[in-house]
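Entry
Fold in token form

___
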Amino acid sequence: MEFRILGPLEVRDRGRVLSLGGGKQRCLLGVLLLHANEAVSSERLVDELWGAQPPARAAKLVQGNVSGLRKVLGAGRLATQPPGYLVRLEWGELDLSEFERLAADARAEQDPARAADRWRAALSLWRGPALADLRFEGFASREAERLNELRLAALLERIEADLALGWHAQLVGELEALVAEHPLQERLRGRLMLALYRSGRQAEALEVYRATRSLLTEELGLEPSQELQRVERLVLTQDPEL
């Protein structure tokens, strides 16, 4: 089986997408997958599914949802283990675990080309924002934010590897789109300045800095980070370090 949370929650068996039932049943599986092969207490499951005001029959409803998932996944997948339940997964069945493995390999790789390939393999596992179909559930919004930050960090590392390979011109369009999507992410703006400068577009690189400074002072009352200021100085002086 394949269990996917890097995008909408999905389980595949021999290429067939399984029907996972209603909203709370899907949420229950989502919580268990975030703690794969670890017991999650019944009390925590109630809290994650209903928050501060659970129904009187919440514990029974959890049991019913577990029973429903066992019918879909097989009894051996969901185990009752005090103080609650756990989902049993084999190596490589959860996309998040595979992403983390590939990311670790990429970070350990010294060759930029091989590192970029591994980052691409890790990022290819994503099908959209994490737990996208459960984003309005309390637990999912918190965990999705954390996972999506991991995705952005991996994307930045892949961009660093591509820059090391001299692919600055090809990266400009992608970086412009990412800056529009994450306007307060200064590291992205710094990489865009670098890609523009290396592409012979010094004036545009400096304009990115000016726009960034304006945005940060107006939105947050802050100056750009010291690193971004350093990039601006290097661009202004056409420093060979760039």
